[in-house]
Amino acid sequence: CIPNTQVSSTIPTTTLVTSFTSPPASSTSSSSATRATSTSAAACSALPGSISLKANPKLNDLFTMFNGDKVTTKDKFLCRQAEMSELIQRYELGTLPGRPATVTASFSGNTLTINCGDSGKSISFTVTISYPSSGTAPYPAIIGYGGGSLPAPAGVAMINFNNDNIAAQVNTGSRGQGKFYDLYGKGHSAGAMTAWAWGVSRVIDALELVPAARIDATRIGVTGCSRNGKGAMVAGAFDKRIVLTLPQESGAGGSACWRISDYLKSQGANIQTASEIIGEDPWFSTTFNSYVNQVPTLPFDHHSLAALIAPRGLFVIDNNIDWLGPQSCFGCMTAARTAWQALGVPNNIGYSQIGAHAHCAFPSNQQSQLTAFVQKFLLGQSTNTAIFQSDFTFSQPQWIDWTAPTLT
Ligand code: MCU
Predict the structure, then answer these.
(1) CA dist., res. 157 & res. 378, Å (int)
(2) Distance between alpha carbon 206 and the CA centroid of its chain, in Å?
(3) Burial of 36 by CB count in 10 Å (0-12 exposed, 13-18 middle, 19+ buried)?
(4) How far is the CA of 323 from the centre of ligand 1 (A)?
(5) Between the N and C ends of the chain, which has fewer C-beta atoms within 10 Å?
(6) How far is the centre of ligand 1, averaged over its atoms, from the C-alpha of 359 (Å)?
């Protein structure tokens, strides 16, 4: 296996990888086989190792490569996604390691044990699976950070992923604590959200390896609420095997855009911003600290993170809590939607902001929307997912100075 080569912070070759994770494993219980790191032969231009960043107050153009090339084809958009992933890792989230040299798994009594080894170190962690009372095995499943905060859908298994065990999130002093850092070292650049995403990818590896778990690894969703919603969005962005991403009330670091939140704060909103959030928990790489007071220089925003999920399913569930920046989230996801529109699948992204309920208490009036996304992406049904609603407005001219092409 090729450790840590799939996405590196400085890409030394002339091509960027176009997939962020390994292809599905064979059905053997352990794997040390060499894995391909790119899916398409499309040559992507490499990002320079060192970049001089220019301030851009608008949301970054999703369809222009860093070198100025226009993105007009779906193939080229894969390059743009790989490039945006690289930029986000480099400046905000830290480097996502690829599949470690060994991944083995075993299953007993609804508990899936995942063992990972690399460079002489090894870790083990478990997830628990709750099976649906309807449907047929192998079941689709939703991986829930901390169990998630959504009702279990009919016919879908729920996988309880203890993300705090992979990377702790108690306060900034938690940096470097958790199984991820036991394997890769306390000084690894990955912030907690990248570490968790790595863990989710290993859970999917394990599901591929262990048919006895009775989960269909081609029908995997991911969810989490609040801080764990931020994490769920990052996992969906980084692993293309996840077919449905369900971030709930994720706010800053999730569905909100740093630029819009800074603006709303300047207008008097009580809203979490980049400069505030880094003092709370080690969710990001320490590199991000240097940019939180110069957000316009970031060569991406969170519409770019969300756009890594396209054309796969993304349903963003929000509340109306000021601190979480619902107006920023709506604008940010409206900008992200251009990626799905350009790919010809505008209804593979949904956005729903409904307030008047407690934080992370999923309200019944979002249920039919959630069900539509789950049925379409996890149960293969044909449902109406044309859902894009908010109590807030988004001033497109203020934030977007580019147009989305129709990608061929
Ligand atoms: C929305 O996520 C976070 C938020 O970023 C924090 O500032 C706040 O303290 O906690 C939220 C959360 O995770 O609540 C459970």
Answers:
(1) 10
(2) 19
(3) exposed
(4) 8
(5) C
(6) 10
Predicted ipTM > 0.90: yes
Tell me how many helices (H) and strands (E) the chain has: 11, 10
- The C-alpha atoms of residue 126 and residue 114 are separated, in whole angstroms, by 6
Give the mutation target among 233, 272, 321, 359 for probing the ligand 1 site: most ligand atoms within 8 A of CB: 272
Bridge pairing between strands 111-118 and 388-389: unpaired
Residue 141 phi/psi, 5° resolution?
A: -145, 150
Which atom in ligand 1 lies closest to the alpha carbon of residue 321? 1
Q: Is 357 a catalytic residue?
A: no
SS3 call for 317: strand
Residue 145, phi-psi category: left (phi > 0), alpha (psi -120 to 50), beta (remainder): beta
How many other C-beta atoms can be found within 10 angstroms of the C-beta atom of residue 108? 10
Q: List average pLDDT for each run of 10 residues in the chain, which is 408 residues long.
A: 31 30 32 34 83 96 97 98 98 98 98 98 98 98 98 98 98 98 98 99 98 98 99 99 99 99 98 98 98 98 99 99 98 98 98 98 98 98 98 98 98
Q: Which of 226, 255, 304, 328 is catalytic?
A: 226
CA 198 / ligand 1 centre spacing (Å)? 21
Residues with CB under 6 A from ligand 1: 226-227, 249, 251-252, 272, 280, 324
289 CA to centre of ligand 1 in angstroms: 18
